[in-house]
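ok new one. same drill as before - structure tokens go in, u give me an amino acid for every spot. 431 of them this time. try not to just spam alanines like last time pls lmao
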């Protein structure tokens, strides 16, 4: 089989590796797609990423039997086959064809990498790439049987190889663990201009079963990028046919080409499940902790709160302004609340991506000062001291605090879709 991985052809100024994938599919029209194109998000904390840190993978062969429509490029319909047979190919000839596309279309400040392999690469490479950092020493033995091409440092080889290692399964249970994204692409003449997408149309498709991350609770569109890239929108869901059957409802601007991707988005694959706070910068963790401080609010609306694990290790958690209403939930936390925190580690701080309230500590309010027998209101004589009447001098024991409801519910809480990381699973899918 012909396996092709590619990464790092875009930049913050524009470009899109998924668009370049449609160019490669067009170039390799003498081959059939075996299975869907794969869009693989890797460690979201690496400092050299452009936007979503995505790499792409394709598998080609000679298709057999029935085929399934997964895209259109111009007038050509793109289909994938689930059954296939081997088709002979010349790796060097294929690499030459692809490298020309990369040279012509990659951004000048990108570091593209292309990997061509006869097989899937070891699955462990994907898990290392999505949860940590892949080193050159890790990669070189794996690529020894592959053909590669790179430009300007070739950093994309790491992501390309990791994309070829993603199977869409959980490594232990072998359960399916993937979602779908149907990406529509704009006419080249419109790149960089304002996208014309109806909020009403987006709202309508967002209500379809299994569709996610189309809108925020306030109605803001989350499926349309803000960058000057070729993407018109990204339509995400758990059922590929629902996406294919309904994307034409979006508009008024229509895509000139579209392609369906199998993806690891919304899988939580980047989280390492921990029992204690082993803070590794650049990792993403999932851990049960207890709130150990009051919430601190700083300029800009960011929130910070300290938590501790079962061993008493403490760390600061952050919820930043783009998290919007999630900050209001954090504001209501009290010392002693037990929560599950999911977030990324940066400079000894956990940047929260979502969290679960597991148990709430009792809440109390301060009772009113006692009324003296002379009818006057008493006053506190200091912390932990008795109350004293300034008129007659009588003293009274401090009244017990009054129990009050927590004004919080148990369960999961998350930021709006436009502020979520691609890999973080929305709460609706967790249910």
């Amino acid at each position: 089989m012909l396996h092709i991985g590619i990464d790092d052809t875009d930049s913050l100024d524009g470009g899109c590796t998924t668009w370049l994938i449609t160019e490669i599919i067009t170039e390799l029209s003498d081959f059939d797609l075996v299975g869907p194109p794969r869009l693989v998000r890797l460690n979201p904390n690496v400092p050299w990423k452009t936007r979503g840190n995505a790499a792409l993978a394709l598998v080609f062969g000679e298709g057999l039997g029935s085929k399934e429509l997964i895209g259109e490029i111009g007038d050509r319909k793109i289909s994938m086959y689930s059954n296939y047979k081997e088709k002979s190919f010349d790796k060097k000839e294929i690499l030459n064809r692809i490298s020309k596309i990369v040279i012509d279309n990659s951004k000048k400040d990108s570091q593209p990498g292309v990997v061509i392999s006869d097989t899937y690469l070891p699955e462990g490479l994907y898990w290392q790439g999505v949860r940590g950092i892949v080193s050159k020493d890790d990669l070189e033995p794996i690529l020894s049987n592959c053909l590669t091409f790179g430009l300007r440092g070739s950093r994309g080889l790491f992501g390309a190889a990791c994309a070829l290692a993603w199977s869409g399964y959980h490594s232990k249970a072998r359960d399916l663990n993937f979602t779908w994204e149907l990406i529509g692409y704009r006419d080249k003449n419109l790149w960089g201009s304002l996208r014309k997408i109806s909020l009403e149309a987006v709202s309508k498709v967002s209500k379809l079963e299994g569709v996610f991350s189309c809108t925020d609770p306030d109605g803001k569109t989350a499926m349309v990028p803000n960058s000057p890239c070729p993407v018109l929108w990204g339509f995400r869901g758990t059922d590929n046919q629902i996406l294919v059957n309904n994307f034409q409802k979006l508009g008024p601007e229509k895509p000139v080409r579209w392609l369906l991707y199998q993806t690891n988005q919304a899988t939580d694959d980047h989280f390492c499940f921990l029992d204690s706070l082993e803070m590794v910068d650049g990792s993403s963790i999932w851990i049960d902790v207890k709130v150990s401080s009051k919430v601190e609010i700083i300029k800009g609306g960011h929130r910070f709160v300290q938590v501790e694990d079962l061993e008493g290790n403490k760390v600061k958690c952050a919820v930043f302004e783009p998290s919007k209403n999630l900050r209001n939930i954090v504001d209501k936390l009290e010392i002693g609340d037990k929560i599950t925190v999911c977030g990324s580690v940066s400079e000894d701080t956990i940047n929260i991506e979502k969290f679960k309230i597991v148990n709430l500590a009792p809440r109390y309010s301060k009772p009113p000062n006692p009324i003296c027998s002379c009818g006057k209101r008493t006053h506190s004589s200091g912390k932990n001291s008795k109350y004293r009447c300034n008129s007659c001098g009588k003293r009274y024991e401090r009244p017990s605090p009054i129990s009050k409801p927590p004004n919080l519910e148990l369960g999961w809480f998350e930021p709006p879709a436009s502020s979520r990381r691609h890999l973080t699973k929305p709460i609706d899918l967790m249910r």
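The domain at 271-362+406-430 is CATH 2.40.50.1010 (OB fold (Dihydrolipoamide Acetyltransferase, E2P)). and btw DSSP finds nine helices and 24 strands in the chain.
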